[in-house]
């Protein structure tokens, strides 16, 4: 008879696999940024790999080689790596765990040189260091770390020059130096071109191609971030939703090329009249959203009146004068996101209904829980 697998046995087999899949997944807080997400993926893989490899190496050195000191050092590094992995996954922290991972790997590689007393075989492994230090830390920080690592390798070699039995030490030192510099240079160039490409993708994914300001996706992220800051620091921020009046008529009378030119010039006009800390986004079509950090309702009203006056006075080459309507509201720590945004949208609708070229305030009751 063929033995059937019970449900309990299946659950026992599935749980370890589920845990492994969960460990291999990159934490979601990094998903919004392609460059950070790539670094987070690499860090997650390196931390898991370091933990597995050094655990096996520690057992091998302890049970087979009989080198208890090396095994103890490797177990200490496993502990440090597990701590970095815990902090990375629990707190979505990238910088600290990344430096701990690269420092642990670098220290292990340096110790191999000392432990083998000049044997040239471990030197091949040294090129592993720039392979992950550049993707983890970026070009500037990684270059500094790698140069310090190369200096440490050369210092160890010079230290063992007269103490270890190295055949033709001068030639070996020259070959190691050239290999490290050329290998690191190739990896630097590769990461430079890859990072530049990722940065272009990142910018394209966050900006509106017509106006050059933030797009709706980026607005959602900034809005979420500002809400989190508001609740953490217990202060309010304001939001202005703007809509160009009779924009369809501009497209119908002058064509979409002129309409696009008006949108570009309108975005530039708003950018020059807002603070560096404010965030302007194209919400969609002829609608724009302006996030005003650390701004109460009175300050937002003053800015709304100033912007309306500026927009009203501006003359477009073909379309002439264009006006806008605005919905203005303030988000406080006790506000509800969906209710607040709905209140802002209703305020914009009221401004349109009341004759356009003006603003309306979101009611406090509607914007709160």
Describe the structure.
The chain has helices spanning 7-24, 34-65, 68-91, 95-116, 128-137, 139-159, 169-206, 216-233, 247-254, 256-272, 297-313, 337-353, 364-367; strands at 237-244, 279-284, 287-292, 315-316, 320-321, 324-331, 359-361. The radius of gyration is 30 Å and the shape is elongated. Strand 2 and strand 3 form a beta hairpin. The longest helix has 38 residues, at 169-206. The model is unreliable at 7-14 (pLDDT under 50). Helix content is 67%, strand content 9%. The chain is of the alpha+beta class and 369 residues long.
Q: Helices and strands: which structural class?
A: alpha+beta
**Total domain count:** 2
| Mean residue pLDDT | 84
Strand order of the largest sheet: 2-3-1-6-7
Q: How would a textbook summarize the main sheet? A: 5 strands, mixed
Identify the overall geometry. Answer: elongated
How far apart, in Å, are the first and last alpha carbons?
A: 64 Å
Which strand-content bin applies to the residues? 5-15%
SSE pattern, N- to C-terminal: HHHHHHHHEHHEEHEEEHEH
Count all strands and give the number: 7
Number of helical segments with 4 or more residues = 13
Report helical residue fraction: 55-70%
Report Rg. Answer: 30 Å
Which residue ranges are poorly predicted, with pLDDT under 50 across at least 5 consecutive positions? 7-14
Oligomer: single chain
Keywords: Membrane, Transmembrane, Transmembrane helix
Domain GGDEF: 235-364
Transmembrane segments: 41-63, 70-88, 94-114, 143-161, 173-190
Protein name: diguanylate cyclase
List the helices and strands and how they pair.
Blueprint: H1 7-24, H2 34-65, H3 68-91, H4 95-116, H5 128-137, H6 139-159, H7 169-206, H8 216-233, E1 237-244, H9 247-254, H10 256-272, E2 279-284, E3 287-292, H11 297-313, E4 315-316, E5 320-321, E6 324-331, H12 337-353, E7 359-361, H13 364-367
Parallel strand pairs: 6-7
Antiparallel strand pairs: 1-3, 1-6, 2-3, 4-5
């Amino acid at each position: 008879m063929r033995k059937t697998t019970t449900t309990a046995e299946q659950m026992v087999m599935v749980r370890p696999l589920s845990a492994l899949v969960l460990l291999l997944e990159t934490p979601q807080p990094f998903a919004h940024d392609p460059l950070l997400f790539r670094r987070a993926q690499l860090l997650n893989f390196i931390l898991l790999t370091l933990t597995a490899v050094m655990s096996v190496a520690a057992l091998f050195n302890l049970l087979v080689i009989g080198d208890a000191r090396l095994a103890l050092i490797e177990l200490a590094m496993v502990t440090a790596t597990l701590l970095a992995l815990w902090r990375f996954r629990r707190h979505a922290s990238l910088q600290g765990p990344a430096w701990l991972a690269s420092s642990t790997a670098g220290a292990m590689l340096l110790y191999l040189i000392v432990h083998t007393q000049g044997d040239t075989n471990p030197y091949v492994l040294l090129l592993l260091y720039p392979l992950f230090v550049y993707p983890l830390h970026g070009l500037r920080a990684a270059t500094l770390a790698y140069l310090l690592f190369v200096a440490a390798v050369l210092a160890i070699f010079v230290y063992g020059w007269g103490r270890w039995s190295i055949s033709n030490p001068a030639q070996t030192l020259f070959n190691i130096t050239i290999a490290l510099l050329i290998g690191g240079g190739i990896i630097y160039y590769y990461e430079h071109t890859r990072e530049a490409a990722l940065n272009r993708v990142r910018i394209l994914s966050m900006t509106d191609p017509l106006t050059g300001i933030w797009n709706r996706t980026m607005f959602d992220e900034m809005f979420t971030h500002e809400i989190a800051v508001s609740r953490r620091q217990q202060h309010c921020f304001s939001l202005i939703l703007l809509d160009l009046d009779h924009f369809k008529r501009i497209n119908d009378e002058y064509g979409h090329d002129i309409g696009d030119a008006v949108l570009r010039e309108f975005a530039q006009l708003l950018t020059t009249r807002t603070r560096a800390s404010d965030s302007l986004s194209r919400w969609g079509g002829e609608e724009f959203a302006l996030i005003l950090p650390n701004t109460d309702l009175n300050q937002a009203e003053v800015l709304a009146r100033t912007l309306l006056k500026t927009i009203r006075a501006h003359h477009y080459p073909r379309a002439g004068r264009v006006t806008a309507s605005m919905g203005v509201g303030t988000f406080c720590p006790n506000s509800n996101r969906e209710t607040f945004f709905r209140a802002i949208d209703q305020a914009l609708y009221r401004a349109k209904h009341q004759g356009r070229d003006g603003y309306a305030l979101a009611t406090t009751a509607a914007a709160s829980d």
